[in-house]
Amino acid sequence: MADKPRILINGKDMFWSLVPLLALCALVAIASGNCSVGINQDPSNSKVPAFDVVTALDTDARQMPFPIRRPATPEGWKPNSGSSDAIESHRVSTVGWLSASGSYVQLSQTDAPEDLLVPYLGGSGTEYGDIAGTGTREAGGRQWVTYETSGGKRFWISDFGNVRIGVLSRGPDSDIETIAASVATQQPLDA
Fold this sequence. Notes:
This protein has helices at residues 11-32, 53-63, 114-122, 173-184; strands at residues 78-87, 90-98, 104-110, 131-139, 142-149, 154-159, 164-169. The chain is of the alpha+beta class. The chain has a single domain (43-184), classed as 2-Layer Sandwich (Phosphorylase Kinase, domain 1), CATH 3.30.200. Strands 1-2-3-7-6-5-4 form a seven-stranded antiparallel β-sheet, sandwiched between helices. InterPro entries: DUF4245.
């Protein structure tokens, strides 16, 4: 069959020339195992790589100028992230998990005052919206000040004297309470 004159080529021809290319891309993505469609909501089976929270917090305990606590890992939770950051001249140690309910839960420990920790956890700009204090809660024998952004992110902060601890999630309050109670009952790690 002869090629069409250029003037007769239209969008349908472009579509049919892209179909084999898109099919090949999909085949490569599926075969590589780096693609999932999220049918299985169990975080323990997800493709998210595991993170070594124990080593990260032990390292932070040696490097941070404030005491670091390591909560007991709840059954069915998968540690998946960690970082060290700064708020102005204060350091922050952060680790995170996927809870058994599939929500991300973050634990941040810092020597920064609460008025600096609140915007750090709440996020800046319009992505998360305004931050409002919503009261207090009791967890692990400690008082926690609760906050929520207009974007639905919730976090609790407690003052341990020389360190402020914040627990954040978009998931259920029970996930926040689990980590808050666990970290509150732990002794600081050896520096």
